[in-house]
Amino acid sequence: MSNLSQRPINPAVGEAIPHEAASLHVTGRALYTDDLVHRTRDVLHAWPVQSPHAHARVTGMRLDDALATPGVVRVLTADDVPGINDAGVKHDEPLFPTEAMYVGHAICWVLAETLEAARAGAAAVEVDYAPLPALVTVREAIAADSFQGAQPTLERGDVDAGFATASKLFSGEFEFKGQEHFYLETHCALALVDENQQVFVQSSTQHPSETQEIVAHVLGLASHEVTVQCLRMGGGFGGKEMQPHGLAAVAALGATLTGRPVRLRLNRTLDMTMTGKRHGFHADWRVAFDDDNQLVALDTTITADGGWSLDLSEPVLARALCHIENAYYIPHVRVNGRIAKSNKTSQTAFRGFGGPQGMAVIEDILGRCAPLLGVDAAELRRSNLYEKGQETPYGQPVEQADRLHRAWRQVTESADLERRRAEIAEFNRTHADRKRAVAITPVKFGISFNLTAFNQGGALVLIYKDGSVLINHGGTEMGQGLHTKMLQVAATALGVPLSTVRLAPTRTDKVPNTSATAASSGADLNGGAVKNACEQLRERLVTVASQHFGVHPSDVRIEAGRVSAIGSKAEPLAWADLVQRAYFQRVQLSAAGYYRTEGLHWDSAAMRGCPFKYFAHGVAATEVEVDGFTGAYRTRRVDIVHDVGDSLSPLVDIGQIEGGFVQGAGWLTLEELVWDESDRPTRGRLQTQAASTYKLPSFSEMPPDFRVALLEQAEEEGAVYGSKAVGEPPLMLAFSVREALRQAAAAFGAPGVSVPLALPATPEAVYWAIEAARAGAFGDDLLVGETTLPPQPPSDAPHLRPESERLAADAGV
Amino acid sequence: MPVNLNGVTAPLDSADPHTNALDWLRSRGLTGAKEGCAEGECGACSVLVRRPSGDRSTWTAINACLIPALSLDGQDVVTSEGLGTPDDLHPVQQEMAVRGGSQCGYCTPGFVCSMAAEYYREDRHADPAPATGDDGEHGPNGFDLHALSGNLCRCTGYRPIRDAAYALDSPAADDEFAARLAEPAPPAVATRVTAAGAEFVRPESLAEAVRLLADTPEAQLVAGATDWGVGVNLMRARAPRIIAIDRLPELRMLHVDDDAVMIGAALTLSEIEAQLDGRIPLLAKLFPQFASRLIRNGATLGGNLGTGSPIGDSPPVLLALESEVVLTGPGGQRTVPLADYFTGYRQSVRAADEIITALRVPLPLAAHTAFHKIAKRRFDDISSVAVAFAIDLQDGVVSRAAIGLGGVAATPLRARRTEEILVGAPWTSETIEIAARSLTAEGTPMADHRASSDYRRAMLGTSLPKFFAQFEQEAEPA
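^ Those are the sequences you sent over. The predicted structure of the assembly is below.
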C-alpha cells in the first residue's frame, strides 16, 4: 500500500455524506455568479450582436443608432482591445472577428444600464456582411478537405496482415451527433476593476487559471493584475473548461473601459447558439474477426467535427483515438484521426472528452456485427474483454483487466440476467407489438490528462489560532462534489472532525497555475495537493505535540481533533490547544501543497506511452421495451457495477455514476442537435437552440429500477486514499441503453438481422431500425465479407504535439 | 397592492408590464429561483403561489419566468428561501439534502418548490401497496412524480430526487404552510399599472376586458402567460397593453348539464383535470401528456386555442370531442365549431376584439377514445404528431368516428376522409387497414427538427392499428 493511498483508522474519507453545500442548495442560499449582480452596484449589462450568417466577411459596422439607444453606454469592438484580440490559446479565435464563422458568432458587444437596453442596443447595431460559402456538415467538410490541427495516427501490429489472415470481415460508415452541455446555469461573468486597476472577474469557469490568462492577454496585462474567482458552477460538464474565457474577457474589457462592473450572462438561446458542444464524429471503419469471433484487426479513420476553431479538438481527438477499443483487446489497430473545420460553434470538452466518441465506434461495430457473426452480442463483448498482461494499442498495460471481468460477472449475477433473458424471450414471443431486450456493455476509461504537464495540482491550507482550518485548492465545484471530497481529505489528513474544516471559493490568487477541473482528475490532483499540505502541517504539529507529551513523533496520534500519545499518561490535548501551542512556538500554520501524478509518459506525436495513471472500469446492463407502432421506448431497469477505487465519498460517487449514466443515455438516445443543412438563408442555424426543442432526459427517462453498486476490493494504489476518478467514466455505461434498443428493434425481425441504429436513438430512429429489422435488410452502409480501406492521411499530415509538450521537451523534461 | 412574499410585504413598484416574476424576485435579492431556460421548460424558476380551491386554497407551483410580476398583485408567494433555512430545513429540503438530491444545486430550489406543492396536495394519500401494474410514477406516500415533470436536472439522473419525494411524510400538525390552506386564497385584485411605455391591467369583469380589448386590438390577453412569457423573454415580444383575464369569474366556471360540458377558458388545465375528475376520459388521457404540471398550473384551454398553434396538444383532443368555442366580443357571444375555428398557421376565425370565454364539449361522449402523442420525450415535450380518436360501435360496426390531428398541417384538423371510411364499416382489422392507409394520406406533414415528414406520415399510419390493438387487448377478458 502506498503512502498516497493508505487510510488512517476512522477516516473522514469513505463516509457517505451529503454535498457540502446541500443545505444552501435546497434553501436557495447557494450563490452562483449571476446571483452576485444583485449585490453589486452600478452594474452594466452586456449583449452580443450575433451573425445571422454561417460564414461571411464583416465589411462594415455602424454603431450610431445603438449608441443613441437610451441606456446604452458603449459598444465594444476590436478597436477597444489593448492586448491580443483572441479568446483562446491557439490564436485562432478572434474575440471580435472580422469574419463571421458561424450563425450566432458574436461580432461586437453592447454595454447598457439594463439588460433590456443592451438588447435593444444590439438590435440597433448595423453590420454589413459579405456572405461566403459555408460548410455545415462533417461530410461537407470532408469532401472539401477542410481540416484543422493535427491528423494523428495510432497504430499497433500489422493491420494489413490482420485483414489478410482473418476469416470474417466487415466494413462500414458511421456518423453520429454531438451533445449540448445544457448545464442549468448558463455562462456568466461579472468583472470589476478596483482602485489599483486590479481586475477581478467572477466567472462560471472550470479553468480559472486559463480564464485569468486569457483576460490578461486580451487586456494586455500581466497575470498578477487579474484575479479570477469561481464560487461554484450550476453544472459544467466540460462546457466551461475553455468557453468561459472570451466571455470573461469581454466583461473585463468593458469594466476596464467604463470603470463600472460589467455582467455578461448568456441566456439559453445565446448559450446554445454561441458556445461549443460535444463533437459529432464521422467514422469509416473496417474490422476483422477470427473463427472464434475474436477481434483481429480494426482499421478506421475518424473525423471529429470541430466547428469553426480548434479549441480543445486536438486533445478530444487524442482521447477518442485512445479509447477506440474501449475494453476490448484488438491485436492489430490503425486509427487515423482528423478534425473537420466547419461553420458551426467551436466544439469543445464534454464529459468523456472524445472517449465516448471513440467507444461509440467500436460499440456500434460490435452491435452491428454480432448478429452477422451469429453470436450473442453480450458474449461477443465478454469474450473480447482485455485479459491481464495485454496492452492498449498505445502501449499501456491494462493492469486491472480482472476488474472488467469481475464487474461483468457481478452484474450478470446481481441483475439475474439469465432468468431475465428467458423472461424477455417469452415476452417477445407473446407480444407482437412490443419487444424487450437487455444489453450489457463495459467501460474502461483512462484517468489523467493525456497531456502530461496538466497532471499537477496545488492547494493552500491555513490553520487559524483557534484551530479552525481553511482550505484552498485549484479545483472548481460544479456539482461533482469535489469540495465535499476535499473537506473529507483534509479532515482525514489532519485528524480533525469535518466541522473543523471549511473551504474557500476557488481563486487564482490563492493557488496559481492550476489545471482545468476536468478529465475526472479534480479529486486526484487537488486531493493529492490538499493531502500534501495537510501532511506538512500535521508533521509540524506532531513535533509540537511530541515535545508536549515527551514522546517520539511517531507515537503521536491525532484523531477526531483529539491529540494523544502512545505510552503517555498525560491528558490528551484538544486540537485547538495544540494549534495554539504551535502558534506561540512560532510554528508556521499554513502550507502550500502540491501534487504531480507520477509515472506518466506520453509521446503525442507517436501516440505511444503511458498517458494514464490508471483505468476506471464499469459494466452496465440495461433492459428496455420498445413500441413497434411508434419506436417509443422505456428503460425498464439498469444494473451497474462501477470501479471508483476505494470511494472517498460514496453518496457523491453514486450520484456521479447515476447522473453520468443518464447524461450518457441522453446523448445516445434523446438529445438531438439539428443544424439547418438546407440552402435557405438560415443555413447553418442551430434549429434545436432551446429547452423546448432540445430535449434533455427528464423524469420520464430515469430508469424506474436503477441499481448501482461500487466494485468491491477496488483500492487504487496510485491515487489519494485509494480512490479513483468518477466524473466521466459512468457516462459511457449508457451504451448499454442504445445497444438494448438495437436488440429490441431487431426482435421485430427474423433472427440474425443486423440493425442499423442512428445516434441519438430517438423514437423516430428506433422506428426506422424496427422497419429495417422487419425488412430484414441490414442497411447499405455495411459491407460483409469484404472491406474498403478507410481514407489514409497524407504523408505530410501534421503531428499532434501541443505547444506545452514541445516546451517541456525543450526544457529537457 | 403589494405581494405577500415569504410572509413579508413586498411592493411591485420595480416591475413594469414586461417584467417577469422571476426577474422581480431576483431584483429583490431572492436569487434562489433561477433562470435556466426562460421558457417554462426547466422549472429552475419554480415558486409557490396560493391559489383558490373551493373555499380553501392550494400551494400551486408555477414558472416564475413566464408570468408578469404584476400579475402577482396582492397574492401570496413562497420561494425556496421562504420554505426553510439551512438551520431549519423544510421537510422537502431535508429529504433533498440528505439523499443527494442536489449536485450543482442550480435546479434545486425549483425542484424544492415543485415538490413542496405536491407535498401539500390535499388529496395526496399514502398508498403503501400500489395497485399492480403500477407505472412507477407514484410513491407509496401518494406522491405523483408528474408533479416534477416540469423540472430538469442535468446532474443527478433523478433517482435521488424521486427517492426524496417518495420518502416524504404528511405535513406535521403544526405545519404553518399546511395551516394556511384552510384559508381562502387571496382574491384577484383589479390592477392597472403603466410603466416603461406599456400598461398592465387586470379588469374586474368580462365586460371590462372586452371593452379594453376593443380599445386596443393589439393588446395581449394573458392568462397563464405560458406562451406569451416565452415570447417576451426570448423574442422580446412587447405589447402596449397586457390584459390579465386569468381570474375573471366568467371564464372560470365548469358546468355539466345534459347535453354539454362547459369549460371556462381561463381555468388552468390542472383545475379542469381536478374538477372533471375523469368525467371526460379523453381529456383525462390528454392532461398527463400536456407539457408539465408547472405549465398545466398556468396554461388554459383558451390560451392553447388562442395561440392557434398547429402543434398544441389540446386541439386534436377537442376536435375528436367535436367541441365548440365560445367567443365573446363587443357584439355579444357566438359559438363556433372547433373544426371551423382554425383558418391558417396560427390564425383563426376569432376577431381581434373577441375573447375565447369557454369550450363546449357536447354530450354524450363517444365510448372509445385514445390520445396518441408522438414526441421525443415522454414527459413535457411538444408533439411531432398528435392523434385523438373518439369512436362509438354498435353491434361491431362503427357508428360514430371523430379523429383529431395535430402536427401534420398548418392547423389542427379533423381526419374527415378516414372518419367517413370508418363510419358504417365493421370494426375489424380489414377496416383498420383500409382506414389506416387513408389516415396516412391526411394532412401534409413536413420535416423539421422534431421529426421527418416520413416519420410523421408513418405515425399517422400506425396510430389507428395501435388504437385497434389496444382496444382488442382491453376487450380481452381478464
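Chain A touches chain B through 80 residues (CB under 8 Å). The CA atoms of residues 671 and 695 of chain A lie 5 Å apart.

Shout if you want it in another format.
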